[in-house]
Every structure is written in C-alpha cells, then in structure tokens.
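Pair request: fold both.
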Amino acid sequence: MTLKGPRSVQKLELNYYPPGTKFHERYKQGSELDHLAFWVRDVDKTYKRLLAKGAKKAVEPFSEDRYRLAFIKDPDGIWIELIGIDRRTKTRKRPLD
C-alpha cells in the first residue's frame, strides 16, 4: 500500500511480510521501521560509495524487471533501499505515481 499527499512527490509505502516469506521476521523492539528507500542515478556506484563511508551490506545490487536495487544498513541497523533504473534495459520510464 502506498500513501501519497495530493501535492507531494514523496510517498510512504506500507509493507507486510507474511510468515514463511523471505523477509518475514518475528516482531521485536526496534523492528517497526522496515526500510527507507531513495531513488539514485547509479545504484552500483552509490552502494559502493556508501559502503566505503561505513554503511553495512544488506543486499548487494541486483536487477528486477527494469529496476536496479540494493540495500544497505545505517549505523542503527535501519535498512536503506537504493533504487534506480536498470540502464541495461531499453525502457527508462519511472514508475507511475
């Protein structure tokens, strides 16, 4: 589910991972925030640059459909998603809002 204000470009996506799925975890204090996501021009370069500055690896860059994604962890353990267009695909459109 995605929430978006009528005059804002920012969105809040609500996620739920049922038991038995890849990212499901039992609730524990501090796991309320799943992750933050940021659009970046080059996922691979941004991922490497943030690791060099002390971010921790979570999920190395990968392609999914026409997108390039990666995840890092900040110093508090919050997951940060890096998302961009996979430049190896023919289409370069951003997702519909």
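--- second member of the pair ---
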Amino acid sequence: MSKRVVMSAQDIDLAIQRIALQILEKNHGRGSMAIVGIHTCGVYVAKRIHAKIERRIQGTIPLGSLDINLYRDDWSLISQNPVVKTTEISFDVENTNLILVDDVIFTGRTIRAAMDAIMDYGRPNTIQLAALVDRGGRELPIQPDFIGLTTGILHNERIKVALNGQGEDGEVIIES
C-alpha cells in the first residue's frame, strides 16, 4: 500500500483557520450560529473550527455532534450492525445558521443523511457545509461552502484524515 501526505499538521491548522474566518465573514450579522460535527472525524474538525471562532469573537457559540448512521441510505451495505454513536445537540437549532462539519466530502450521501437528521431537531435558518477535504466524485448535488483542500484522486484511492482528538497534530494521507 502506498501513501502520500497531502496535508501536514501545519496545513490542517491553516486550513481550519481559513475556514473559521470564512464562516465568520459569511455569517457576520446574520443572527445566531451553531456548529455541528459529523461523527467521527468531522467532530474533531468542528471542535477546532469552533475554538478558532470563539477565540476570534471572544464569545461563545453552540457546538454539537451528530451521528448519521441510521439516516444513511446505504447503511445496510456498510454493515448489518452499524455502530451508533451519540448525537449531542443541546441547543435549539430552530432559526440558527447551522454549520455542518465533516472531514472529507465525497459522494454527498453523508451530508444528505446529516441534513435529514438535523431536521429532526428543528428547522435551521440556513445549513452551511464545511469540509476539510473535498475529494470530488459527487453522486448528489451537494457542495461545501467552506473547503480546506480540494483534491482529485483515483477511484481506487482513499483519503485518510489522521487527527488527534484533542491536539493540533495530524495529517491527511492518500492511500492506494
């Protein structure tokens, strides 16, 4: 198996900082905002974006996590016994500008499932999407609003985002 690093820890940190600033710019003066990370790696990316935004605004905004396994249209193809994680949305999503965060966007099916899951909690004013890596290959017309890296990869290649859940280290690797 061959591997190549496409984002170093420093690249990831810069991308997250850029995404956070773009989110603030787009949502300036638009009312309440909340960030929700999609399990598993999307939660880690969301926490980092959230921390940078709160530092920048010197205030607080809601942060949540979302498990979408039972909302996927392909869950039975992935596993007969999907591992269900905890969804933690302890704020009212109604009328918020909700930022969904995932590590990698590929077909768009994860995001479609996440939007279905969010609607069970209420109707946000807007749903915006932030992805650390956009690898292309959409099957649904879903595009991220904020992207750290856009890269094209071969069909037999896989992107692996290696993040420490608490720290700032990690890397993005393409494996074939």
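Observation on the second member. The first strand starts at residue 3 and ends at 7.
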